[in-house]
Amino acid sequence: MLIKKFLVILFLSLLLSSSAHAKKNDIVIPKYFFANELTRETCPLEGVHGHGSWGKTYWELDLAITHVSKKKNPELQGNNYDHLMKFTKYDWNKDHVLRSNSVYVNHEKHTNRMALLHGAIVTAIIDNKMEEHGPIIAEVMVAWAEAGVMLNTLTDEEISQLKKQGKAKSCYGGGKAKGDKPCLSHRPQEVQIYGSTYIQQAYLMRDQFTKKQFKIIDKYIDTLYKKYIEPWTLSAGKSSVGFFQMADGTVSVLSYLAWKDKPEEASKWIKRGIKKANKVVYKDGYIHNNSFRGVKDVWYHSKGVNNLLGLYAIAELWGYKKFPKKLKKKIDKTVDVLNLGLTDVKTYRKRKDPKQLQNHTKEQKDAAYHTHQMAISLDWLIENYTDRDHTIVANDRMWKSKKSAYFVDRNFGFEPKCMN
Length: 420
Fold this sequence. Notes:
Layout: H1 2-24, E1 47-48, E2 60-61, H2 80-85, H3 92-99, H4 108-126, H5 130-147, H6 156-164, H7 171-175, H8 186-204, H9 211-238, H10 245-248, H11 250-259, H12 266-280, H13 297-317, H14 325-343, H15 345-348, H16 378-385, H17 391-394, H18 397-403
Antiparallel strand pairs: 1-2
């Protein structure tokens, strides 16, 4: 009898211990994906007409979906709704062929609209105008879904088949430092970024869709995820090359899990992101591939730093409690390397690429020695998530000039300063 009681007590204690442990490590998806609260104080988005906008670049932009330009910029004739609805006719495949190569990916026509959509939704939430603006925003998102925007883009698998057939090469002319050659892999990569951002906006709008609209949006999201997001993220995780947008795809999958309300699967994907980061960040803070990109090395390195800190920040926000301390120390060192690159590029370049990859350009006309312009809050991430000096990035004049055309960090789909 005593033995039986002991076994029961032991079982209950183990069960309670297990429950407590599970609760301690439970992922909790923030109400707004990247924030638990959205107010003017926590997320003061200030819009400007960016590249690819319907208005003049850098001019002030009212982010409300109902915006008409006459009030603030009388020379402009247009509105946010029309600009967003025109996206239903967009063909990224054609655009990419006409205007992009291995060095330059001219993605502003879809990037600009995703930022504007995000701004319109956040503005409606903050201004308590979702009752008025929600149906209009929902109409836009449903129109994109029904048009299948971006879904005709080549997939990773299709590109692989083209390469096997000898009909396509990898970027930079087959890895021969030829920047003017096509780079087909940028196509599905961009859809992965677009898809993640679209899903985040759908998550913010989830209570605004009718049942019919929800089904249309949900089907579109499933297709984006299955064709582009999951394959790209899985491929990125297996690759030993670099750390790029959406925390190398981790944020993209988390966007999908938020939409599907599957927080129990988040830890698995955060671990994937951590594993990849640990693989590509060297002990001295240089990042495999990112840090060794010819005349754009510092620029690419800063993109890596931004996405690494984004991984750490989003993991912390979602309640992930097992981020490796050793990896965090290596990430902190990537900031030291960035600061070196911004202040003494010759010393920065004494560290040679151990893999001697040729996916870069040495043409001086393509040089970029500044922080990545779409990493709009990298100084804030450094200040808030490391003990390193953030002022070198903050005082990067070229970065400050170029980033002023953006109010959303497209590496994540939102403005990092809004995280809370």
